[in-house]
Amino acid sequence: MKNKRIQAKWNEKLIMDKGAPGRRAHIPMQLDIPSVEVPDKYKRISPAKLPEVSELELVRHVVRLSQMNHGVDVGEYPLGSCTMKYNPKVNERIARFEQFTELHPDTPDQFMQGSIQVIYELQEAIKKITGFTGVTVQPVAGAQGEYVGMLIAQAYHNERKDNKRTTVLVPDSAHGTNPASAAMAGYKVIELPSTSEGFVDLEVLEAALDDTVAAFMITNPNTLGLFEPNILKISELVHKAGALMYLDGANFNGIIGMVTATSMGFDIMHLNLHKTFSSPHGGGGPGSGPVGVVDKLVKYLPSPMAVYDKEKDHYSFDFDLPHSIGRLHGYYGNFAVNLRSLAYIYRNGGEGLKKVCEAAVLNANYLMEKVREIKGFTVPKSEKVPRKHEFIASPYRMMQETGISANDIAKAMLDYGVHSPTIYFPLIVHEAMMFEPTEGETRTNLDHMVLALKEISDLAYEDPDAVHRMPLLTGSSRLDEFSLAKNPVLSKKSKK
Ligand SMILES: Cc1ncc(COP(=O)(O)O)c(C=O)c1O
Prior knowledge:
CATH class of the domain at 94-347: Alpha Beta
Order of helices and strands: HHHHEHEHEHEHEEHEEEHEHHEEHHH
Largest sheet: 7 strands, mixed
Mean pLDDT: 94
Distance between the termini: 42 Å
Bound molecules: pyridoxal-5'-phosphate
Oligomer: single chain
């Protein structure tokens, strides 16, 4: 019990079942502008069914629910690939400055110089970090960045009348959104099996490269946390075949400040600002997936682009981009995410970002060495090779010997106040557990995670049934997953 953490357990009703008619948590201010009569046809026939609760009832409800939940502010959260890193609170404060939040995006340029400057300077900062000459910060997710990248590849080949290029090659260690984005853009996706060590198989790649290939899409470091050692050779082969090199740079935390995308031979890449640059991931967003491209592709970037006229000292949006793939999103992307990221980049500076990378890599490797010593765990694929920001451990042996699976371990970890790593991904490892501790965790916290895993492993070998029953100290314990899938109850009849 010493190392465990107890979560609050509130018997909390639904908000609709609380309160009483007439109670209000907030009374809007009187309008100080003339009211407008809404035509009858647009008016509601009956009042909206909203909860009627006092402010205290509302606040306590939300606080109690948060206490029955796990978050990065509560405990460790080593969710590989979906990076839940600690993001400095100061950036949250900056993102809430009302000079930004109260500004309507249709405001004329001259009255939103500061906001356009933020977008422009982020474009410039990402150019420096990645080496590219053109950057858009409009895509609102990593996957949307990938989609943009694929549309740019298409525009490039089409303009050259190179219309045979209808396929995209993707290694099987890629993140799942890569093939999905290529397919959405209309490409046929060919999955390339990796070597047994988890790297790109050069012979397989060479055999697949021909004049029908539009792009090679690679996640580097890949989902095993491995940096591709043959990346320069791969770029050479891909370019020789007339195809483009696409980098899924969502794992940039593992290499930031150490190498640029262009020095590895990439033509297009996206970043996940919500993994690397100070915005929490998870829960479906909001995110930001800027895309960088080399010179020859700049003209295809989405419209509009933020530009700066040095002579007039004036920021504006350039919509006059005849070769652009067009607009992807209302207005200019997820502005608040972009603002947090710029604040993060400026506060760290180039040297600081390098340190972020070093600490993230050190933490991942420290944890990996400790986890591999725990009975029942292995670190498959390139066992001896150090990882970048994340690694995959597999309790496959433990499952064979005790029946305890990655899923059981993930649930049991919650009794220690540690969120599960990402499990069962990537698919190329049995019982994969993908750990990404991030640069934010201290050694004490890493040791706590190791201790949790060690105690769970000990219990698995002594009394597996006890592990099957965990978690016992959380707000709610194991759900009946079978009934949830087969007989889901998706609504609750409220008293009102
Ligand atoms: C390596 C990698 N690529 C792409 C994505 C897709 O990003 P998003 O979830 O923002 O669409 C992720 C998600 O975290 C990722 O980890």
